[in-house]
Structure formats: C-alpha cells, structure tokens
# Entry
Amino acid sequence: DVRAVDPLIKALADSDEEVRSVAADALGQIGDVRAVGPLIKAMADSDADVRSVAADALGQIGGARAVDRLRESTKDSDWRVRLHVVAALGEVGDPRALADLIAALNDLDGRVRASAAEALGRIGDKRASAALEAMLTDGVGSARSNAALALAAVGAGDSGDAIVPLLKDEDSRVRSDAGLALGLMGRNEALGVTAPDSLAGHGIFAFNAVIAMSRLDTPEAREALKTAAKQAQVPAARKLATRCLEVSTTVAAVEWLGVHAGSSFDVLAAMALLYLTDPAALEALDAAHRDSRRWYVRRAAANAARRIRRLAGREDQPASAPVR
# Structure
C-alpha cells in the first residue's frame, strides 16, 4: 500500500535497528520511487543488517540513483552487505555496474564472489567472459558453478572448453551446473553428466539434466531424453523429459510454472527460463510472479522476466513488480 510509504520512510530513522530493517524491507516490496533517497541514506546505517536490507530494496526498485549507490557499496566493510549489494546489482541488470561486479569476483569472501558471478550472468555482457572463465578454478564450489552458468548466460560459447573439466569436479552441484551450462551452449559433452543425472538425480540435478539435454540437437541427446522419459527415478523428471521431446524447452518449462505449479520444479523452471531468455515465456513468468504462493518462486519469476525484457529491448513494457 503506497499510503504506507511516508510512515515507513520515517521508520528508517528509528532508534531500533530491527525497526529500520523491517521498514527498508517493506519499502522495497512496495517499490515506490519516493523511497530511493531514504534507502540510499540507509546504506550508510551503522548496522550491517539494515544496510543489507536497504541494498535488497534498492535492487527491487532500481533506477540510476539506486545503481550508483549500490556500486559504491560493493566495497562495504561487511561481507554480508557486499553479498546483498552484488545480488541487487544483478537484479537491476544495469551494465554500468559491470566493472564493479568484475572487481567483486576477487572479493575475499567466496560467497560474495559466487553472487557476483551470478549477477554478471544476469547482466549478460560478454565483456565479463574472461573474468568469469578465470573463476572456473575458484576454491569455492558455488563460485565455480555460478561462473559456468554465467558464461552460458552471456553467450560465451567459446568458453565451453574451459567448462568441460568441471564435469569431473569433486562437487556434485558443480558437475550438474556445468552440465547445464554446456547444454545451454549446445555442447554434447554435457551428456557425460546429464544422462546419468536425469535417471538417478533428484531435484535440481534431474531438472538441470533434462533441460540441458533438451537443448542439444543431437541423436545421442534425444535418445538420452527418451530413456529419461521412461526410466528417471523422479516422476517429475519423467514428465519433463516427455514434454521436452514433444515441445520446445521454453514451452515445457513454462508448463511447470502453470499446470505443475505445485511441484518442487516450479522455482527451477523460473530459473531455467532466466537462462533461456525466450520472450514467449513472459506471460507465464508474470503470472507466476503474481500468483505463486511461494515467495522464492515469485522472486525467481520476476528476475527472469526482468532479464528477458531487458535483453529483448522491452524495458518500456509493463514488467514484473517488486516481490511481495
């Protein structure tokens, strides 16, 4: 309710840091641009939690002023704040933050490095390719995973050779994400991980595997999909593989946002559509953002829709509102 904006702005000056945090969070959910100035001021709050929530809120509202302040805060003294700041810059997707996010790939904290890699993938600028490729050997698994997916997202197909070794990574999640990244790039090497994961994997492993194989235009990949459609241990993976044999990957993922919205795959579908960047998914993503009962599905759908609109040059069209 926009009527709450003024009282919430006043609450940003409350003596209790918890009240300030709640106010910042609420302002981000409302998404009123009148809150940008006060939230920018809150980025100098003495409490790191308040600064973190203010960064989230600025990322949800967006705009040039918000981006400028977030860029400054990539050097905040607290790693938690930096983590929220780079994630917020990824949500906004402003290419002006490219250099700041590339610098954040060298952050002392691995969680911040991983978040920066993910943010660069959302921006989708190939100028980040070299820095992301260097991240493929990072000591933190999530950083390696996010770098591989980001390289696929920015369209750095020539980085596929550097991702292939991750198919044998000691971390199963890294192997899965590397398989998805290579699948998105159209690299048949992905089958080394995706074929077995589609059969025996659970949750994100099975979903990644099926999506990756559906993007490979080879007889081997199609046979692997047929096998998954019949033999995958996870029923949802069998259904998804079956649909990917019948329709495009985008259509299959969209169906998991709608008809199968109650399954555990709905948030994974929204995340996959972020990388597929097909404008045909916008209506379904907006509906998932509006109607899903789970906040993380709404947020994933909003992020995917925002990125698709930006890359398709549709920023002037109505976009998903901030997550409520």
About this structure: DSSP finds 20 helices and no strands in the chain. Residues 320-324 have pLDDT under 50 and may be disordered. Residues 4 and 79 are 31 Å apart (CA to CA). The longest helix spans residues 295-311.
